[in-house]
Write a structure and sequence with these properties.
The complex is a heterodimer. In chain A, strand 1 and strand 2 form a beta hairpin. Chain A has two domains: about 150 residues, no CATH class; about 70 residues, no CATH class. Helix content of chain A is about 70%, strand content about 5%. Chain A is flat, with a radius of gyration of 23 Å. Chain A has ten helices and two strands. Chain B starts with 6 loop residues before the first strand and ends in a 10-residue tail after the last helix. In chain B, the strands form two sheets. Chain B has a six-stranded mixed sheet with strand order 6-7-8-3-9-10, with helices on both faces. A four-stranded antiparallel sheet of chain B has the order 2-1-4-5, with helices on one face. Chain B is of the alpha/beta class. Classes of the chains: A mainly alpha, B alpha/beta. Chains A and B meet through helix 8 and helix 9 of A and helix 2 and helix 3 of B.
């Protein structure tokens, strides 16, 4: 069974859930830009907004820490790297390596930004149906020439659908090989080949069967267009995001 | 006088290169409201035959008519009339939620959003999936996935539902649920065509049975008449029949 994670849509009726997905995508872009552009004041404002949105997204802090442990490890490395490579007034000295006051401040700010962008992504994924994302992508791509927007949208949909299936198959192949003591094999290239060849074979076979099943259900590019539902909060939300973006350029 | 058949196979042949498998000169008719059981051991040609019913494969000789029209001339009409449920539910499910997957077929037919929603609601209800409509299909059990695959086909409102080995890899409760759903679909007027090599589960529901062996149709009769001839074609005779008793339904 495919593992569900933090990026899985959870149905609810919060403001973030009810916003038109196109508006949500625009807001996400504006807020990401504001995060990377802004200083502590806009970041504090964005943090408060994201925290407010995380509550209805039903995420426990411990779950967040557990699921994102590797991400937090990366953030910690960024912080340490910034602290010791930025010049300035030394603050901590350990084994001859000193972290500067300016480095720690810069590292903390950068880490804060990374965490915020990740949290915004989680809020978006938890509050948005993948099919709505697909619809929005189709809508945004429509004016772009030479891009078949319906096909692109279906590709996104299939990617989202297939990921847990591929992970599941990889786990099955790996377990089947471990059951025959393949974990004792020391050559990493051999291990990789033995894992990827059957996995690719299974994936291509699944893709073949999927294409056949889609054809059986009369798939064509002349499909019913996606529906977008507006909650009425979109202009205000967009204005707020623009305000935060403006603030990030000023403060 | 009997009504015009929904589906008519006339000397239907399909040969795969080099393997020798396929189907050979199959002729039969399927009428509205029938529950046709297609039995045969692995490699007997059941799946190949089914893919013709849905116009996924074209005959290499002979013809297959759906509502009197050749599938060669109008494959889309065949797909609208005949809904095919594959053996592997995992690769048939394309939506990110249960409701989205059911909507996939009606969206392909270009229906309005209101009509799509109506059909999704009806299919959810018919297959007992209403409580799971927002669930990610990856998180469903095997039986639920199989019911979702059928719901996706039911939402396209086909006259005939073709199920290829629907009970494979299902546990006992999942099998019972699925039998009840199939029975309900038949009772609401759908024509059912079902392939299995384990006929005991549905033989009491079937109104007719055909047996395929090495690509050829070797028997076509009411199920009771064929019970004693099953094992010569590699199909297990129901236990009750072996003991000289009447075969009991698995679910009602």
């Amino acid at each position: 069974m495919g593992q569900l994670n933090l990026f899985t849509y959870i149905p609810s009726t919060s403001i973030a859930h009810d916003l038109d997905v196109r508006c949500k995508l625009c807001c996400l872009s504006l807020m990401s830009l504001a995060t990377f552009r802004g200083g502590p004041v806009p970041l504090a404002l964005i943090t408060a907004m994201v925290a407010g949105l995380l509550i209805p997204a039903a995420i426990r802090p411990l779950t967040l820490l557990r699921e994102l442990k590797f991400f937090f490890l990366l953030v910690a490395m960024v912080f340490i790297s910034r602290s010791v490579t930025t010049g300035g007034e030394p603050m901590i000295n350990l084994l001859g390596i000193s972290a500067t006051k300016q480095g720690i401040a810069e590292g903390a700010l950068l880490s804060w930004k990374f965490v915020l962008v990740m949290l915004m992504g989680i809020v978006f994924a938890r509050t948005t149906k993948p099919s709505h994302v697909k619809g929005a992508v189709q809508w945004f791509l429509r004016p772009v020439p030479f891009i078949p927007e319906t096909r692109a949208a279906v590709m996104i949909s299939l990617f989202l659908r297939f990921m847990p299936l591929i992970l599941n198959q990889a786990s099955e192949v790996s377990q089947a090989q471990q059951a025959r003591c393949f974990h004792l094999e020391k050559n990493p290239v051999k291990r990789l080949v033995r894992l990827t060849v059957p996995l690719l074979k299974k994936t291509f076979q699944s893709a073949d069967r999927m294409a056949l099943a889609m054809e059986a259900r009369s798939y064509s590019e002349k499909r019913t267009d996606p529906a977008f539902i507006r909650s009425g909060h979109e202009p205000l939300t967009l204005a707020l995001c623009l305000l935060v973006l403006g603030l990030s350029f000023m403060v | 006088m009997r009504a015009r058949p929904l589906i008519e196979a006339d000397q239907l042949c399909h040969g795969y290169d080099s393997t020798g498998n396929g189907i050979r000169k199959i002729s039969f008719q399927i009428f509205k409201g029938e529950f046709l059981l297609v039995a045969g051991k692995n490699g007997s040609g059941k799946s190949t035959l089914f893919r013709h019913l849905n116009a996924l494969l074209m005959p290499t000789a002979g013809d297959l008519l759906v509502h009197g029209r050749s599938i060669r001339k109008d494959p889309l009409a065949a797909r609208k009339t005949v809904g095919l449920v594959f053996q592997d539910a995992d690769t048939q499910i394309v939506g990110e939620t249960v409701a989205d997957d059911i909507a996939f077929g009606p969206e392909n037919l270009g229906l309005s959003r209101n009509e799509i929603q109506e059909r999704v609601d009806l299919a959810l209800d018919a297959l007992g999936l209403s409580q799971l409509q927002e669930r990610n299909p990856s998180s469903l059990s095997g039986g639920e996935k199989r019911r979702l695959a059928i719901a996706g086909v039911v939402a396209m409102d086909p006259e005939v539902i073709v199920l290829d080995e629907p009970f494979s890899n299902l546990d006992h409760p999942g099998t019972l649920d699925l039998i009840a759903c199939i029975e309900k679909l038949h009772q609401t007027g759908r024509t059912i065509v079902l392939a299995t090599h384990d006929i005991e589960k549905v033989i009491t529901l079937a109104t007719r049975m055909i047996i395929l062996d090495r690509g050829s149709l070797v028997a076509d009769d009411v199920p009771q008449a064929l019970l004693k001839h099953l094992e010569q074609f590699g199909i297990r005779e129901p236990c009750a029949s072996r003991l000289g008793m009447e075969v009991q339904p698995w679910a009602s």
